[in-house]
Specification:
With 518 residues, the protein is α/β, with parallel strands linked by helices. It folds into two domains: 418 residues, Amidase signature (AS) enzymes (Alpha-Beta Complex); 76 residues, no CATH class. The protein has an eleven-stranded mixed β-sheet with strand order 1-3-2-4-6-5-10-11-9-7-8, with helices on both faces. Strand 10 and strand 11 form a beta hairpin. The mean pLDDT is 95.
């Protein structure tokens, strides 16, 4: 039986042991496959576990590592640290020869003929792709309950949601099924599930990571981002996937910071970086209805940063209150255009038997779920003649004002903003499903970052009622490295906190059956 203890290692520790030769990628992959296959019936985090493909890629990684060790230290240094490390992909990332459903019935049976840019980058780095992860249909949701293939569960409580839309990606990392995973963030879909499952999740600056080969939701908002259990792990994954791609016109020609691979290993060194750091605390992010336990954890985290030498400055982002309404005009409008391609003629699900129009209506009617239909209708309405100026154009003007608020804050000497991620901890299945507005409010603290195209991340900040709370870090454009250093510093100053040693309890009964697991 594979060693289950291997699934508790950080990705950085896995990389170090792989390079040293005291651990093989095949051993690592077998341990993660065993855990994922055993627990996925309870979690439903994985839509596909590619056992054969993962083992083949692990053997290739082991051969690359062995050859590099024979060639000496310089050859090992050339290999990316991800070589041999398992990674999971949200099921809207194209993988040649594999499924790409985007959580929708309308793409059931579709097989991608090509790799996404980030898939190419991961293969080049030698990462081992374990499979495809569950998600809200077309990334439209905050709980993964809108997946056409059933909801994913939260490893902390199997009766609660893991957040969304990248719920499967977050849950798989929190459960130890994989050390790293890929999600996408259109309005908080990396940061919010990271907060609800107690892992690290980063939404990079718009344009930092190519969207080529990613099933689109809202093209001016979507951005690919990494999940990991630590800041160093997530930074390592971002380093591998970031960079210019000529096939994506929105991909920026910005250099990828090499120091993403060199965040401080020492807690003392990491914490020292906080001295003199100016952090803004936006008052508008403590929204009405925020749970008391969530607010308490966020204020405790801010106090800890201040005690370690950071300067905390109260700031105002006055147009934050318009973020939710603005987002739910812009995003559905872009979605209605992007989803027009699913017509039952070119690929995916199709209904036959009538004329062209009847087949089109029947295909989309049976292939799309209720949330996707709702947003297509909202977006089509906002773009229709007579309403474009009143809704879409006005929303874009407000979007400019939201970005100007951030620009003013960072222009005043603030290095980064600290804020809540979600106003509440993970909620029970069904609690918000029948009230779309209540569901949308789960992203009220994350949406403005996407509207402004800025980088943001969620890091664990303790527990409320036994469930994770996430602290949000927001920076100016292209400041991913600074945010990761800040996240690493917070990990250092809270390393001794009791909640740091708490593991997700929802899978405890299953794991108690495993022999030899402490």
């Amino acid at each position: 039986m594979p060693d289950p203890g291997l699934t508790r290692l950080t990705a950085v520790a896995m990389s170090d042991r792989l390079r040293a030769g005291d651990l093989s990628s095949r051993e690592l992959v077998d341990a993660h496959l065993a855990r994922a296959e055993r627990e996925n019936p309870a979690l439903n985090a994985w839509l596909v576990i590619d056992e054969a493909g993962a083992r083949g890629a692990a053997d290739e990684a082991d051969a690359r590592l062995a050859q590099a060790r024979r060639n000496g230290a310089e050859a090992l240094a050339v290999l990316h640290p991800l070589c041999g490390v398992p990674v999971g992909l949200k099921d809207l990332v194209s993988v040649r020869g594999g499924q790409c459903t985007a959580g929708s019935r309308i793409l059931a049976g579709y097989v991608s003929p090509y790799d996404a840019h980030i898939t190419e980058r991961l293969r080049a780095a030698g990462a081992v792709i374990l499979g495809k992860l569950n998600m809200d249909e077309f990334a439209m949701g905050s709980s993964t309950e809108h997946s056409a293939y059933g909801p994913a569960a939260n490893p902390w409580d199997l009766g609660r949601v893991p957040g969304g839309s990248s719920g499967g990606s977050a849950a798989s990392v929190a459960a130890g099924h994989v050390p790293l995973s890929i999600g996408t963030d259109t309005g908080g879909s990396v940061r919010q599930p990271a907060a609800l499952t107690g892992v690290v999740g980063m939404k990079p600056t718009y344009g930092r990571v190519s969207r080529y080969g990613i099933v689109a939701f809202a093209s001016s908002l979507d951005q690919v981002g990494p999940f990991g259990r630590t800041a160093r792990d997530a930074a390592m994954l971002l380093h591998a996937i970031a960079g210019r791609d000529a096939r994506d016109s929105t991909s920026a020609p910005r250099p990828v910071p090499e120091d993403l691979l060199h965040l401080p290993a020492s807690d003392d060194e990491a914490a020292a970086g906080l001295r003199g750091f100016r952090l803004g605390l936006p008052r508008e992010y403590f929204v009405a209805g925020m749970e008391a336990g969530v607010e308490a954890r966020i204020r405790e985290a801010v106090a800890a940063l201040a005690a370690a030498g950071a300067e905390i400055v109260d700031v105002s982002l006055p147009h934050t209150d318009y973020g939710l309404a603005t987002y739910y005009i812009v995003a559905p409008a872009e979605a209605s255009a992007n989803l027009a391609r699913y017509d039952g003629i070119r690929f995916g699900h199709a209904v036959r038997g009538g004329d062209v129009l009847a087949n089109y209506v029947a295909t989309r009617g049976s292939g799309f779920g209720p949330e996707v239909k709702r947003r297509i209708m909202l977006g089509t309405y906002a773009l229709s003649a007579g309403y474009y100026d009143a809704y879409y154009l006005k929303a874009q003007k407000v979007r400019t004002l939201i970005k100007a608020d951030f620009d003013a804050a960072f222009g005043s000497g603030i290095d980064a903003l600290v804020a809540p991620v979600s106003p509440f901890v993970a909620w029970p299945f069904g609690a918000r499903l029948d009230d779309p507005v209540a569901m949308y409010l789960a992203d009220v603290c994350t949406l403005p970052v996407n509207m402004a195209g800025l980088p943001g991340m969620s890091i664990p900040a303790g527990l409320s009622d036994g469930l994770p709370v996430g602290l949000q870090l927001i920076g100016p454009a292209w400041s991913e490295l600074a945010l990761f250093r800040l996240a690493r510093a917070y990990e250092a100053i809270t390393a001794g906190a009791a909640w740091r040693g708490t593991e997700p309890s929802g899978l405890a009964a299953l794991r108690a059956q495993e022999v030899g697991v402490p």
